[in-house]
Amino acid sequence: MKQQFWVGLGLSALVALASCQKEKPPEPAPAPPPPAPAAVAAAKPAPPPEPPKPAAKPLEWDDPPQWKKVPPSSPMRRASYEIPAAKGDKEPGELNVFVLGGDVDSNIQRWVDEFSGMTPKSVVRTDRTVNEMRQAVVEVPKGKFSGGMGDKGASENYGLLGAIVVAPSGAEYFFKLTGPSATVKAARDPFYSMLDGMREQGGTPAAKQPAGKDASKTKDKAAAKSQKSATPATAAAKPAAPAPAPAKP
Length: 249
Description:
Elements: H1 2-23, E1 59-60, E2 68-70, E3 77-83, E4 93-100, H2 104-113, E5 115-116, E6 124-130, E7 133-145, E8 155-166, E9 172-180, H3 181-186, H4 188-196, E10 199-200, H5 215-229
């Protein structure tokens, strides 16, 4: 009887143990492995810094030997010249150089407006190109000039040779020559020779042309000469356009 009791008790324990094992919750699935780190793109090298722009070069020209260079009377003037008086004139002329700005054509007109008593047809207005630089030129052969400095007042029978040269840097060089009419007329060829030699500092002057001569013949001769003398590494400077024929007063 006791043996049956212990056998029954053992069976009950086995049944209870098996039931516990069946009710045991399943173990959680293992966590997935972390994703592999994305490959880091190689950083692009920074572009090299741009080289500094070269400093703007001032313009230079050749002083006409007939003229006398004098100290400027104002800090606004880049250069000043005394123009010798022509025969019969009692006073010399003067040329002053300024570096200013503003609209070129408006400044040319302002110079013309300083004169009165002349016919509009006598005023000569031209545009030239020398060494790739624009030159706006105006001539007033004779009139009453009221644009002088100081208390001089208006001057009768005066003339004007004026030019505004636009440098590659954008700076505008003003060349204003005034004086008695005959003196201004005598200074015309040296004035245009000076404009023909306009260049950046250290540059090469363009081929000079006599004022009022035929442009095509002079240009063809200058081009043929430059092709013979220029080396492959050095291009010849472009010849300047000729000065216009002087207007009759």
